[in-house]
Amino acid sequence: xxxxxxxxxxxxxxxxxxxxxxxxxxxxxxxxxxxxxxxxxxxxxxxxxxxxxxxxxxxxxxxxxxxxxxxxxxxxxxxxxxxxxxxxxxxxxxxxxxxxxxxxxxxxxxxxxxxxxxxxxxxxxxxxxxxxxxxxxxxxxxxxxxxxxxxxxxxxxxxxxxxxxxxxxxxxxxxxxxxxxxxxxxxxxxxxxxxxxxxxxxxxxxxxxxxxxxxxxxxxxxxxxxxxxxxxxxxxxxxxxxxxxxxxxxxxxxxxxxxxxxxxxxxxxxxxxxxxxxxxxxxxxxxxxxxxxxxxxxxxxxxxxxxxxxxxxxxxxxxxxxxxxxxxxxxxxxxxxxxxxxxxxxxxxxxxxxxxxxx
Length: 359
Description:
Layout: H1 6-13, E1 35-39, E2 42-45, H2 46-57, H3 66-89, H4 96-112, H5 115-126, H6 130-151, H7 170-179, E3 185-186, E4 189-198, H8 205-217, H9 223-228, E5 243-247, H10 256-264, E6 274-277, E7 280-290, E8 293-294, H11 299-326, E9 331-332, H12 334-343
Antiparallel strand pairs: 1-2, 1-9, 3-8, 4-5, 4-7, 6-7
Helix pairs in contact: 2-3, 3-6, 3-12, 4-6, 6-11, 7-11
């Protein structure tokens, strides 16, 4: 075990932290922090973990409970400590990774067209913020560097030209698509807008809707504006100008006439006046129609699948590297060891055959 710093020696010599409920502090003293982990000569306290957990809970994309945030924070900090120790034992200045991560982030932003587009993709597809993605990239690039050095691919002196890339082959993307077709099935959906009127004395609803439809088709009247016009008197969600949202014609409860129209409607098609019963009639505009079927494997979907597969590869590379580093360093802390086992499950022990019989 490497020599510990003087402050670490004093901490390690003190009694190990206990459950405050089981061992209350002496009268007049207050526990302000606890030692949670040691990695060689690095120490980690409860307050450090708590501060990082509070930062994780500020992520608006993910709701974390206290226990979950604390476990993730402890795993994050232990991961960084192990990588830091790996570079130190290899006598390598890890600052070169900053350039690699910066270049990679810039390349990805260019692929998505803007910072906001990439941030939106991370949020929707990977449940990550830009900061979390940057931290993960730093860890995976560190992992790749350790792996490549161990294999002799990247000499330590050549790290200034180190390029860390994870390649996803087109065949892997196609195979993922074929094996997960259910993920890419689209329902028949119609974004619709409805103008509904009721018969009034001397003004049948059907005649009024036929007049409105004629004016819309002639370009004299905007249908959306008509749906919100108090003078026309739309009875269906006039405050939102008749917006019905996304409708599944074969599943959502609808008036029969509206269902029949939406089943066959095309994008931009405006219905004839449809009878709803009880003196009510409606015009329905199919603003956007999504046909039922498989989402095509176009460039956008290929990019999304590649990102998922690359994320899986990155996680596996980090898992293997962390477990290799764990075998090279001293780690203390029962809680820390349990968290590392859950975050980076060790490879199963190889099975050994029966001992040879004595001859």
